[in-house]
Amino acid sequence: MRSSNNLIGLVNFFTFLLSIPILGGGIWLSSRANSTDCLRFLQWPLIIIGISIMVISLAGIAGACYQNKFLMWLYLFAMFFVIAALIGFIIFAYAVTDKGSGRFVMNRRYLDYYLHDYSGWLKDRVTDNGYWNEIGSCVRDSGVCKKIRRDLNGVPETPQMFYFRKLSPVESGCCKPPTDCGYTYVNETVWIPGGEMVGPNPDCMLWNNDQRLLCYQCSSCKAGVLGSLKKSWRKVSVINIVVLIILVIFYVIAYAAYRNIKRIDNDEPVGEARMTKSHPSHFQI
Fold first, then answer.
1. d(CA 137, CA 157)
2. Fewer CB within 10 Å, N or C, the chain?
3. Measured distance CA(253)–CA(234) in Å, rounded
4. pTM > 0.70: yes or no
């Protein structure tokens, strides 16, 4: 029984360690939500799951150390639902970021982003006027467009140098006009009409060289935010999948050890008779 308790305690310790990358992923998403991604939603379920795993693991460790079967049972019961919640989180994260990606542009290294390439719950949430007013302000206040400006000895970089830069989805969607609008490059965030408009893209009329406006109300900016969210959530989901697999393995080991403890407790100690009588009966002939 002692070896089974030690095994459960060890498994719970490693489970506690596994909660750290989950909690770290939630904190990382939270930092992104306050800067680049600007959508405060998915990080909170992840943070709650990470904290829950920590607390439940501590309960399991205490149960193993003090041989408290109730705490061990509570660990197994609660961890089952946490694992189910983590599976649901991963499925949800992949489902809402399933569609949409940047488009390759000829003679450009960066990608262009179009809102109609995306669909589903996440797109509806981002494009909702109430949410977008807050998200657009967050993107503008983050200074992401100011950060893409580069000077070479006080001279802005050339168009060719800019065209072959690798921009983030938000930088490409919010800080410059779409390529098919035919604008001419002056610097990273200043563009002037320089050719015929290509295609009926409404963003072409929304672009403004005013640094407070730029393309923050463009559909391409909303698509850029969606593209950034997709990258962030997918990175975290990959880590969560690895953690989930290890967590399930540890759960199975802990469950088997707990069953072994129950089996040992149900067996009677060696040397004790199954039925004893304080006054044995005497047979009379």
1. 28
2. C
3. 29
4. yes
Residue in the structure block whose two tokens are 């140098």: 161
Running DSSP on this structure, what letter comes out for residue 277? -
Phi and psi at 207, nearest 5°, equal -65, 140
Q: What are 114-164's pLDDT values in tens digits?
A: 999 998 888 998 999 888 988 888 899 888 999 898 877 777 789 999 999
**Residues 171/227, Cβ–Cβ less than 8 Å:** no
Q: How far, in Å, CA of 17 to CA of 200, rounded?
A: 53
3-state secondary structure of 221: helix
**Residue type (1 letter), 179:** T
CA torsion 14-231-84-49 (nearest 10°) is 60
Q: Which two tokens stand for residue 146?
A: 């100011």
Query: For residue range 74-101, what is the model confidence (pLDDT) as tens digits?
Result: 888 888 999 999 999 889 888 888 888 8
